[in-house]
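Form 7-S
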Amino acid sequence: MACRLTDFHLIMDCGLDQFHQEAYGTSFAAAAAGILGCVGSTIMADWSTGLFDCFSDCSLCCQTAFCPCITFGRSAEIIQKGACSCGGNCLLYLLVHHVSGCLITILFGYFHRRTLRRDFGLKSSPCPDFCVHCFCHYCALCQENRELKNHGFDMKIGYDANVQKQQNRGVTMAPMNEEGMKR
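Output:
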């Protein structure tokens, strides 16, 4: 049986995957793959946007070009599941980038990209994560941010507010007609 994470893409888009992750410690897509007999096989999905699709979101592109610490901070807060705030990640990126140079910043980006790929079952493309951040650091930051947006995260409100927003999202039902059905 050929298994692809794209088969479970709708599950991840509606927020069920994150809920399942928090409740049971494993992603719903991974659990579904296990049920379908795909245990041990590699399940990888394509990124929702390409590495060089920076201009698909011009405001994000400009933000990353002039202040990459904000793009990194917002993405890192969600990737770290709120362990460190956007401001903390932003400040850390800014200090490391200007004090110790680019190599440590590239390593930060590499570790966060690797975590994002693992959490969402994404392919290591177009090349290994370290190379992506080494040669196309700002493009990688933009792609990671867009990927989180495309998975339903609002990058401006932070991790806790996103979790709250997803928990408040209920199943919407058709309105009830008090009089019953008529022809």
